[in-house]
């Protein structure tokens, strides 16, 4: 498939800066670039610290979603998890209330300045709020070594975890941790080991994970992500990167195209944003989000437009990243 020329991307490019309700991954504002292609609106939003080579697959994904046909969706709604940032335990109930009907919560743990005691208290508060029917997964973003992860698994075991996402950074560590916690039957999910690896299938081939977290933008778009899912042969959770509702719609169409979706997806993250680009965001209702295209609202694009300096930065980034395609 030929690429759309750079001038065509530039002609509809909009850059927004959306405030988050709660600090997440160390950021308080999420910046994103949006384009309108012939197939619909699409998003390019690699994190600002990613280099151009890493951002290239995010741009491929944006082009795929805005310029090419989608695979046939198999469902119209995607069940999602609540996402609990690294907050104090007493903030948990208020955050869960933003996710009506969600039986599953993903809890961020192993954050830089937060102790395991705080992580345990946060997970305990989630179990308290969801009751025995709730499903609780934790995400350490690779921040534990194997001993810390094993210790955390013991401390969190009473809360009956659905899985631990990226407890350690490397594939070798994941293999070793899985060996150590197998007797506890806590599954291990790989996220960064899929989306930031040279080879997204290596973690599956090494037997280092029980399931994979799959994100459309870092994996180069819906079709390449679907190929990875097919080849990995493991169950998957489709997730987002705190995208705007336009980026979330890409994730929703990916989730809608996966034959077997046995886990709730991490696509409820519109609730983490204090503002969005549309008057009809992909909000969570009845524990799920819609599978549909999202059209930004002109007034909201203006209202949340990034500063001229940040817009120029994104335009320069786009040009540099385009050269990698
Ligand atoms: O999966 C979710 O519930 C939300 C998405 C999420 O946690 C996330 C969002 C931005 C960057 C990294 C991650 C992550 O899963 O590690
Ligand atoms: Mg993760």
From TrEMBL:
Its EC number is 4.2.1.113. Keywords: Lyase, Magnesium, Menaquinone biosynthesis, Metal-binding. Pathway: Quinol/quinone metabolism; 1,4-dihydroxy-2-naphthoate biosynthesis; 1,4-dihydroxy-2-naphthoate from chorismate: step 4/7; Quinol/quinone metabolism; menaquinone biosynthesis. The active site is at residues 108, 215. Its cofactor is a divalent metal cation. SUPFAM superfamilies: Enolase C-terminal domain-like. InterPro entries: Enolase-like_C_sf, Enolase_C-like, Mandel_Rmase/mucon_lact_enz_CS, Mandelate_racemase_C, OSB_synthase_MenC1. Mg(2+) binds at residues 139, 165, 191. Gene3D superfamilies: Enolase-like C-terminal domain. Belongs to the mandelate racemase/muconate lactonizing enzyme family. MenC type 1 subfamily. This is o-succinylbenzoate synthase. It comes from Orlajensenia leifsoniae. The lineage of its organism: Bacteria, Bacillati, Actinomycetota, Actinomycetes, Micrococcales.
């Amino acid at each position: 498939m030929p690429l759309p020329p750079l001038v065509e991307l530039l002609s509809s490019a909009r850059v927004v800066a959306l405030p988050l309700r709660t600090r997440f991954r160390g950021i308080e504002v999420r910046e994103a670039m949006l384009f309108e292609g012939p197939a619909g609106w699409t998003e390019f939003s690699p994190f600002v610290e990613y280099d151009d080579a890493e951002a290239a697959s995010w741009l491929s994904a944006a082009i795929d979603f805005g310029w090419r046909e989608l695979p046939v969706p198999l469902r119209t709604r995607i069940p999602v998890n609540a996402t609990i940032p690294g907050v104090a335990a007493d903030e948990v109930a208020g955050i869960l209330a933003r996710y009506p009907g969600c039986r599953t919560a993903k809890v961020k743990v192993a954050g830089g300045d937060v102790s395991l005691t705080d992580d345990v208290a946060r997970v305990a508060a989630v179990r308290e709020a969801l009751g025995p029917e709730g499903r609780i997964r934790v995400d350490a973003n690779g921040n534990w070594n194997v001993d810390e992860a094993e210790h955390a698994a013991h401390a969190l075991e009473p809360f009956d975890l659905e899985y631990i996402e990226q407890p350690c950074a490397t594939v070798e560590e994941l293999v070793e941790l899985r060996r150590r916690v197998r007797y506890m039957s806590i599954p291990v999910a790989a996220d960064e080991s899929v989306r930031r690896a040279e080879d997204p299938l290596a973690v599956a081939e090494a037997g280092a994970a029980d399931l994979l977290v799959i994100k459309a933008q870092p994996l180069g778009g819906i079709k390449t992500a679907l190929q990875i899912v097919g080849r990995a042969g493991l169950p998957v959770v489709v997730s987002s990167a705190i995208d705007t509702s336009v980026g979330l719609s890409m994730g929703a169409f990916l989730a809608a195209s996966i034959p077997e979706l046995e886990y709730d997806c991490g696509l409820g993250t519109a609730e983490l944003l204090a503002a969005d680009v549309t008057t009809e965001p992909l909000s969570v209702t009845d524990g799920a989000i819609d599978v549909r295209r999202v059209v930004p609202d002109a007034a909201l694009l203006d209202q949340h437009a990034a500063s001229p300096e940040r817009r120029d930065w994104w335009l320069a980034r786009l040009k540099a990243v385009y050269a990698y395609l």
